[in-house]
Specification:
Layout (H helix, E strand, L loop, with lengths): L37 E2 L6 E3 L2 E3 L2 H9 L4 E2 L3 H8 L4 E6 L7 H18 L5 E7 L2 E6 L2 H15 L2 E6 L4 E6 L1
Parallel strand pairs: 1-4, 5-9
Antiparallel strand pairs: 1-2, 2-3, 5-7, 6-7, 8-9
Helix pairs in contact: 3-4
Length: 172
């Protein structure tokens, strides 16, 4: 009786554990430019197969490669076309005394969200009398900014959602 040289297929139990799988932020270790790779010339996000992520090492390689294409990411496209999904309205009396800290918190929150999802960006801010309107490209970012403001500076938070837009009010 001879041994069979066939290999039995692996069941789902034998897949590599999660910590052994390559995550998007680790792709730079064995990164080779393939058809479909692109980068955003405005923000530096890297796209592959309709997925955008933050990877500065890959972006650096793609900028040097003449086969890689430049494509505006969905976040930069929304800003250019003025399509916003969220608005944060700051009508809190402590804004005037803590404006620097509040703006820093808003920018920090955007940075944290952007590293996870490059389409989440601040699109702009408009000041009207005693209120400030901050526009975002995603609903999630607007809600996250509101929650961070309430956590850090207290106040009242009111979130009004529709299917395509979220408006967050942070007031006294």
């Amino acid at each position: 009786m001879s041994k069979s040289n066939t290999i039995s297929p692996l069941s789902s139990k034998h897949k590599a554990p999660e910590h052994h799988r390559v995550k998007p932020e680790q792709h730079h270790r064995a990164f080779h430019v393939q058809p479909g790779h692109c980068y955003c010339p405005k923000c530096g996000a890297v796209g592959f197969h309709k997925h955008w992520y933050f990877a500065p090492e890959q972006e650096h390689i793609l900028r040097k490669d003449k086969n890689a294409s430049q494509v505006l990411c969905p976040g930069c496209t929304k800003i250019e076309q003025q399509l916003y999904e969220g608005e944060v309205i700051l009508a809190n009396s402590c804004f005037s005394t803590l404006s620097g800290e509040i703006i820093a918190l808003i920018k920090h929150t955007e940075g944290v969200c952007w590293h996870k999802n490059p389409t989440a960006k601040l699109a702009g801010a408009v000041e009207e009398e005693e209120t400030i309107h901050v526009l975002t490209t995603t609903k999630f970012l607007a809600e996250r900014i509101g929650k961070e403001l309430q956590k850090a500076f207290k106040g009242n938070l009111n979130v009004k959602r529709t299917e395509q837009f979220v408006r967050v009010y942070w007031t006294d």
